[in-house]
Write a structure and sequence with these properties.
With 549 residues, this protein is α/β, with parallel strands linked by helices. The chain has helices spanning 15-25, 32-41, 66-79, 114-128, 131-134, 186-200, 218-230, 259-270, 294-302, 308-315, 329-334, 401-414, 429-439, 460-475, 485-493, 518-535, and strands spanning 55-59, 81-87, 93-97, 105-111, 140-141, 146-148, 151-157, 171-175, 203-207, 243-247, 347-353, 368-374, 379-386, 416-422, 480-481, 495-499, 502-506. The chain folds into 3 domains: 52-83 and 97-247, Rossmann fold, CATH 3.40.50.300; 259-320, no CATH class; 347-535, Nucleotidyltransferase, domain 5 (2-Layer Sandwich). Helix 3 (66-79) packs across helix 4 (114-128) and helix 8 (259-270) crosses helix 9 (294-302). The chain starts with 14 loop residues before the first helix and ends in a 14-residue tail after the last helix.
């Protein structure tokens, strides 16, 4: 019998059944928010009757309750009915435990240190010792492992014995993956765990706190995968259904100096875990108060000895920035304006930064970018970004010059371009000369009389001053941008490189090859031209020519 939806269900799931088993045998009652995660995680394909999700990432602030939740999920995967096995007489899914299908079952609980792994292991071991579980299942909870039929649940760290090739890994808990980096063996540990999961048709669950961009952690790589999925650039979008990415952070405009704003931001980030007497703010009607001490957390923001970026990451779950980052992710989110429309008559400036393409034997080429800026709306927007494709298609790649020239030509047709600044390096000096000859008469603001477009590379003070002005405009929310993935990632990747007169932007030291920042430079050129246009009082819309009869 095929699946038959009940009560408006959009897909079949074992999530409710797993939650019932948690309550019965683990004395663990999920919140509505946690139930929503289980429903999504245990989604079933209605045609094949197989679980869809093989990889889950749940990111919440500290104290939300990730560790006991993951402990309950780990025990569920090891012992409970979690493997779909057809449909009952009502068209609803039925399931059996992994032990009915496998002779070896292992569930590692992993982190990069003993202290971290205890966050999940301690509540898991406590649940495993409950009479309701021990009396029903053949489990042997010891201090260092939990014996189960066919295997064990066991804490593992990157410093311990290798997890590579662990047989029967039906599930793996990966805790605090924002701390998993190359230096502590976290990247290798994550790869081994995922390989084991693939071999055993199992699942992995990551539970990071907010990561710091630029550290190249496992959590950051997972977020990057999700960004590729959302932007449509993931290598296999059909396979992307297998990934569940559940992240919620405080709104980008949360102001820690404003009590009402901070309180709402914390309540939103903590969801059903918030202990606010009015209940949660993510459901209507609101759920009952939880356990996370919102008022106590608010006091932490008043303590000037605390690092505000750490507080934002820990309690608002906001992915902020490295110490030398150009801008933070919350600041960028706060200035996104996705629905702004640029008219043909308002003054617009352009910024261009070019790449010569991939050099033989070298890594990934820089990007070539064309960025626009509306002088009156104070709005940055992407016109074109040309990047080296992944894989074999990227070998010997060169920017599509004709396509880029067409994009410049089209920009002058589509917009009232009053200024255009471009970096002439990387083989683009001749093109800049051509653009100057073709468009000079239209440009109301110029770098110089003889070279109106060519950015003066030797004028370092102008470059550093403009980057400083652009950062101030972003953090002060004096400008907006279109939220394009390329502009976003290039802004986040950019690091401050200190000079005597200020700073310019460079790539992250850990990833000078893969992390692109060219759109940030292009935005700076467009913004610099916009500042000059504003200084020249070029804020009026162009008046369309009228026929005189």
């Amino acid at each position: 019998m095929p699946w038959r939806p009940l009560d408006g269900e959009t897909f079949p799931t074992l999530g409710y059944h797993v939650a019932d088993q948690m309550a019965e045998f683990l004395d663990y009652v999920v919140t509505r928010e946690q139930l929503e995660f289980l429903v999504a995680f245990y989604e079933i394909d209605p045609l094949t009757c197989r679980r869809i999700k093989t990889r889950a990432i749940i990111q919440r602030p500290r104290g939300w309750g990730k560790s006991p939740k993951l402990g309950a999920v780990g025990l569920s995967e090891a012992l409970f009915e979690v493997v779909p096995d057809g449909w009952d007489a009502f068209g609803q899914p039925v399931a059996r435990p992994w032990s009915d299908f496998k002779s070896i079952i292992n569930v590692p609980v992993t982190a990069t240190s003993d202290d971290q792994v205890q966050n999940t292991w301690a509540p898991m071991l406590e649940m495993a010792r409950l009479d309701s579980l021990v009396n029903e299942f053949d489990v042997d909870p010891m201090d260092t492992f939990i014996g189960i039929p066919g295997g064990k649940i066991e804490p593992r760290t990157s410093s311990g014995r290798s997890i590579k090739g662990l047989p029967g890994q039906v599930a793996a808990i990966m805790d605090q993956t924002e701390e998993w980096v190359k230096g502590n063996g976290g990247l290798r540990l994550a790869q081994n765990i995922r390989n084991n999961s693939t071999k055993a048709s199992g699942v992995t669950i990551e539970s990071p706190n907010a990561f710091t961009p630029g550290e190249n952690s496992v959590a950051e790589a997972s977020a990057r995968d999700w960004d590729l999925i959302e932007s449509g650039k993931y290598p296999d979008l059909a396979a992307a259904r297998q990934i569940l990415y559940d992240h919620r952070e405080a709104p980008a405009d949360t102001d820690p100096s404003d009590r009402a704003s901070l309180e709402y931001g914390l309540r939103y980030a903590y969801g059903d875990s918030s202990d606010h007497p009015d209940g949660c703010v993510i459901h209507n009607p609101p759920c009952e108060p939880g356990w996370a001490p919102i008022q106590r957390q608010m006091l932490a923001f008043l303590d000037t000895s605390n690092d505000p970026q750490v507080l934002r990451a820990d309690f608002l779950n906001q992915i902020t920035h490295a110490t030398n980052s150009f801008v933070s992710q919350p600041d960028l989110k706060a200035i996104q304006a996705l629905n702004k429309v640029i008219s043909k008559t308002e003054p617009v400036t352009l910024g261009f930064d070019g790449s010569e393409g991939r050099k033989p034997g070298k890594g990934t080429a820089d990007s070539t970018v064309l960025i626009g800026y509306s002088v009156t709306q104070k709005h940055l927007f992407k016109i074109g970004v040309w990047e080296q494709p992944d894989g074999p298609a990227g070998e010997n790649w060169r920017p599509p010059v004709l396509q880029i020239e067409d994009a410049v030509r089209q920009a002058f047709k589509d917009y009232n371009v009053v200024g255009f600044y471009a970096d002439p390096s990387a083989g683009w000096a001749g093109h800049v000369k051509t653009w100057e000859a073709e468009y000079a008469k239209r440009l109301k603001v110029r770098m110089s009389r003889d070279e109106p477009i060519r950015w003066r590379q030797k004028d370092l003070a102008r470059t550093t001053d403009t980057f400083d002005q652009l950062e101030s405009a972003i953090s002060g929310r004096d400008i907006t941008y279109d939220g394009s993935p390329e502009l976003t990632s290039h802004f986040i990747n950019a690091r401050r490189d200190r000079r005597r007169s200020g700073y310019v932007l460079m790539k992250p030291e850990h990833d000078p090859d893969g992390s692109k920042i060219d759109a940030a430079w292009g935005a700076m050129f467009a913004y610099a031209a916009g500042i000059d246009a504003l200084g020249a009082k070029l804020t009026k819309k162009k008046t369309a020519a009228r026929r005189i009869y």
